[in-house]
Amino acid sequence: MKITFLGTGSIIPDPKRDNKVTRSYSAILVEIGTETLLFDIGPGTLTKMQQIGVDTRLHPDHLFISHYHIDHCQDYVGMVKGRWFNVQTGALEVGKKLNVYGTTHLQSWTNELFSNVERWSYLSKMLDYHKITNLTEKKEGIIAQTQDWKVSCIPVKHYDGIAFRLEAEGKSFVYSGDMQYDKNLSILGKNADIVAVECSFPDKKVLIGAHLCPEDIAKLATFGNFKRVVLTHLYPLCSGREVEMISYIESHSSTKATIAHDFYQITL
Q1: How far apart are CA 189 and CA 163, in angstroms?
Q2: Model pTM?
Q3: Which positions ≥6 away from 7 have C-beta within 8 Å?
């Protein structure tokens, strides 16, 4: 299982400067054999996939959307539309289907995007998204499964968001999406090999909104006995405090901690 963190920032991107790493909008690509699973699809995801040699006309095979905030799903429209054209001629042609999984309202939200936006009416007149997508809505339990892998989900406290757990090749990978403190992540992530968890702010004093900080993550990791956490969805306020954030989590739990940056890769 190869995991590529395509986007590790928040709605406020943190571009590279002064030798800092880049953090942009949320997306994580997982490769299992020849299959590809994408968790969230924030702005720029298609470009970043193409930069690492992934043909977005064919991949991902499966798209999992944690919630419907722009920094987690904006490239959805572009991905679906991009599968409608003949590569050689540019003529309309139904391409490879995209399997899409999400929480409540996935179907109505997709319909709104492709059928009810007046200035995008050409989408519904030219393209029928039903022919290019398979949509599955679920808030809890097994949301997708093949002979080689299984994805489960659970609701978390963030605007009807859900977290995902992928099990494949004897390993487990969990993705929190965005969330505030919620023990459901510990339940879903029990004994997981890697938990990619949002850590929007460097400490409790500056934390705002429905998000997490190292204090919360240390508690969740302890309850869930996570083997390793990888911090993602960092706001620019975290810049320069990464060592402190890792140190706090590791000193207040038995979990190893790492901070991701765009294009950071792990092989499980």
Answers
A1: 9
A2: 0.96
A3: 23, 24, 25, 26, 27, 28, 40, 42, 44, 45, 48, 262
- Burial of 210: CB neighbours in 10 Å, binned 0-12, 13-18, 19+: middle
pLDDT confidence bin for 86, thresholds 50/70/90: confident
Task: Name the residue among 165, 149, 60, 77 with its Cα closest to residue 120.
Answer: 77
The C-alpha atoms of residue 18 and residue 4 are separated, in whole angstroms, by 24
Q: Which two tokens stand for residue 98?
A: 């995209």
- Encode pLDDT of 141-171 as tens digits: 999 999 999 999 999 999 999 999 999 999 9
DSSP H helices in 64-136: 70-73, 76-82, 106-115, 121-126
Q: How many Å apart are CA 7 and CA 51, to the nearest integer?
A: 13
Amino acid at 134: N
Helix axes of 214-224 and 242-251: crossing angle, nearest 10 degrees: 30
What pLDDT score was predicted for residue 159? 95
CA atoms within 13 A on the CB side of 194: 24
Three-state secondary-structure class, residue 189: coil
Phi first, then psi: give them for residue 220, nearest 5 degrees.
Answer: -65, -40
Other Cβ atoms within 10 Å of 213 Cβ, number: 22
- With beta carbons less than 8 A apart as the criterion, state whether 184 and 156 touch: yes
The per-residue pLDDT for range 7-45, each reduced to its tens digit, is 999 999 887 766 667 899 999 999 999 999 999 999 999
Q: Which strands, in side-by-side order, build the sheet including 2-7?
A: 133-137, 98-102, 62-65, 35-39, 27-32, 2-7, 264-267
| DSSP-derived pairing of the beta strands 162-168 and 149-155 | antiparallel
